[in-house]
Design a protein that fits this description.
Blueprint lengths: L3 E5 L2 E2 L35 E5 L9 H15 L5 E5 L6 H12 L4 E4 L5 H9 L4 E5 L8 E6 L2 H14 L4 E6 L4 H15 L6 E6 L6 H13 L4 E4 L5 H9 L2 E6 L10 E7 L2 H13 L6 E4 L5 E3 L8 H15 L9 E2 L5 E3 L7 H5 L8 E2 L4
Parallel strand pairs: 3-4, 3-5, 5-6, 6-7, 7-13, 8-9, 8-10, 9-17, 10-11, 11-12
Antiparallel strand pairs: 1-2, 1-4, 12-14, 15-16
Helix pairs in contact: 1-8, 2-3, 4-5, 4-9, 6-7
């Protein structure tokens, strides 16, 4: 079951809100808007904004981070009529019903924070006056855009740290599903580690969930039993971090700073922050300047690495941060020659992968095992 909360100007009732500055993204990370007419302006006090989430806002991970963006919108636009927020939206026809309900409640703008694809698109096509934004989406329509994060860059930086910290060169990864975000994450992580230890390898275990503490704990245990002394993953909870703490190995996380679950094991986390982006998009919708576009938030502008853990040696953090600064300054580590796990050249010598190619990555680099490609 999922709940619908309504956040009106009078507070939480029982179905859920926020702000307005301009978010500037580096050239190449945001495509030009489609040639669609902007939707008309809306008075703030008449506006209804909807958020649909894949998980619970208490997960301290992906959904919690989107909820912080909602709160930022609420603070920036305190006169909004209401904000609709639904947790645990399934990848099923129930998602379609949820977004139809948003439209029937008068939503002017709807954020799908975890890409329900065709289940959302059915609603988009029937609500041309509503602006839709799909996180990790791939479709553009006259009233639908998408957004995501260039997580492969901070992941690469954390990989550099892993290369320094791992004694065995055997790294482990707790994966959700064999999807593009996981391929990009596993590949970037190992590529960063291999700049320090060219013989490093990465074993992955897929648990078919974004939030399953028991399965993540079991996967982390199996990876360590197989020799991994550094765990990474893309989970929305701290299961494998707690395993790393108990077993005395390193771990890095995703979404937020949750080091308290494993302070000795914690190295860093891929930190996400949608607050400025959501405030910007809602502001454009209210002003009548919103048009659909493609947005990949860059490192330092929506995604980054967390501060280093208490046991990370200063020289390791410094070495990784030197790489981070190069990336912020415009350097890309994703340049060929790159081969896949079967030895086939996928990126030619000297060729740099584009942001679109990184976003849609669907094959494993040499040294990554456990994902189908």
């Amino acid at each position: 079951m999922y709940s619908i909360r309504n956040l009106s100007r009078r507070g939480f009732l029982n179905m859920s809100a926020a702000a307005g500055s301009s978010l500037l993204l580096p050239q190449g990370l945001m495509s030009p808007a489609r040639a669609a007419d902007p939707l008309p302006a809306i008075a703030e006090e008449d506006a209804v904004i909807g958020f649909g989430h894949v998980g619970p806002i208490t997960d301290e991970g992906w959904t919690w981070s989107h909820h912080q963006g909602l709160l930022a919108v609420q603070e920036a636009y305190p006169k909004l009529s209401k904000i609709l927020e639904v947790e645990n939206v399934p990848y099923s026809a129930d998602a379609t019903r949820t977004y139809r309900q948003f439209v029937s409640e008068g939503a002017n703008m709807i954020f799908d924070t975890s890409s329900t694809g065709d289940f959302l698109h059915q609603v988009v096509k029937r609500a041309p006056d509503v602006a839709f934004m799909e996180c990790n989406g791939h479709a553009l329509m006259d009233n639908l855009g998408w957004y995501y994060l260039a997580h492969w860059y901070p992941t690469y930086v954390i990989g550099v740290a892993a290369g320094h910290l791992s004694k065995t060169g055997k790294l482990g990864y707790v994966a959700s599903f064999p999807v593009a975000s996981v391929y990009a994450s596993t590949n970037a992580f190992l590529m960063g580690a291999r700049t320090v230890n060219p013989e490093a390898t990465l074993q992955t275990i897929t648990i078919n969930s974004w939030f399953d503490p028991q399965a993540a704990t079991q996967a982390g245990t199996a990876l360590i039993d197989n020799g991994a002394d550094f765990l990474f993953g893309i989970m929305d909870e701290a299961g494998y971090l707690q395993v790393a703490e108990k077993r005395g190995v390193w771990a890095a996380m995703w979404n937020t700073d949750i080091r308290r679950y494993g302070p000795n094991a914690y190295v860093s986390s891929v930190i996400i922050d949608f607050k400025d982006f959501y405030v910007d998009q809602v502001g454009k919708r209210l002003a009548g300047t919103w048009t659909p576009g493609e947005h990949i938030l860059p490192m330092g502008g929506g995604i980054d690495r967390d501060t280093w853990g208490q046991n990370v040696p200063e020289e390791v953090g410094k070495a990784a941060d030197e790489v981070r600064q190069k990336i912020v300054d415009g350097w890309s580590p994703f340049v060929g020659e790159l081969k896949d796990k079967d030895g086939k050249v996928r990126v030619e010598e000297g060729q740099q992968m584009t942001e679109t190619e990184l976003y849609n990555w669907d094959w494993s680099v040499e040294g990554v095992s456990g994902l189908e490609s």
